[in-house]
């Protein structure tokens, strides 16, 4: 997606844009959630939430927020925050227990994400910046501890994204 090519640093932009484009075509059960923001009929932001499997807890429902991209000229206008809030609201209404994210704690903390809430959820790969692994509890049901797998096969399973 072009918005991600423009939103991310040069060394990350192609990988993130490829991931974002693949999310639109991804088949998973439950389905991934993608949302976009437009201004004057121009795409200015996009976000994806991918379903997760949590072994051994079959009754648990979780998603991971990735990627979020906003055009640089739209930064500071609340576009990313609106996308995050809309996605969390939809997921909560659909009975999702938790949403995880790997990103800036100062930014995502404003939307209810915390490292403490993520402590029971092991990321699928080793993290370069472990402090960025965070969760927002939506339905108050924590996992039982264990490993996460991305339900969208071949997308977030790539260690390069972590």
Keywords:
alpha/beta; 4 helices; 162 residues; Aminopeptidase; 29% strand
Folded structure, characterized:
Helix content is 25%, strand content 29%. The chain is an alpha/beta fold and 162 residues long. Strands 1, 2, 3, 4, 5, 6 and 7 form a 7-stranded mixed β-sheet that branches.
Describe the protein's topology.
Blueprint: H1 2-7, H2 10-25, E1 33-39, E2 42-55, E3 62-70, H3 79-93, E4 98-102, H4 105-108, E5 121-122, E6 133-137, E7 146-150
Parallel strand pairs: 3-4, 5-7
Antiparallel strand pairs: 1-2, 2-3, 2-7, 4-6
How would you sum up this structure in a few lines?
This protein has 4 helices and 7 strands. It is α/β, with parallel strands linked by helices and 162 residues long.
Name the helix and strand elements from N-terminus to C-terminus, one letter apiece: HHEEEHEHEEE
CATH architecture classification name: 3-Layer(aba) Sandwich
- Category from helices, strands and their pairing: alpha/beta
| Multimerization state | single chain
Which of globular, elongated, flat, extended, rod-shaped describes the shape?
Answer: globular
Radius of gyration: 15 Å
Identify low-pLDDT runs: none
Strand content: 25-35%
């Amino acid at each position: 997606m072009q918005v991600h090519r423009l939103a991310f640093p040069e060394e990350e932009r192609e990988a993130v844009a490829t991931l974002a484009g693949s999310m639109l075509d991804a088949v998973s059960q439950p389905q991934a959630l993608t949302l976009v923001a437009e201004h004057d009929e121009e795409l200015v932001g996009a976000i994806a939430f991918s379903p997760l499997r949590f072994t051994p807890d079959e009754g648990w429902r979780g998603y991971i927020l990735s990627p979020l991209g906003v055009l640089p000229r739209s930064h500071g206008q609340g576009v990313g925050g609106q996308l995050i809030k809309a996605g969390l609201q939809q997921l909560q209404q659909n009975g999702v227990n938790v949403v995880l994210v790997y990103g800036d704690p100062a930014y995502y903390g404003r939307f209810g994400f915390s490292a403490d809430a993520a402590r029971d959820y092991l990321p699928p790969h080793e993290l370069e910046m472990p402090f960025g692994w965070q969760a927002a509890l939506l339905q108050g049901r924590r996992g039982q501890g264990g490993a996460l797998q991305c339900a969208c096969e071949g997308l977030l399973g790539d260690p390069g994204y972590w």
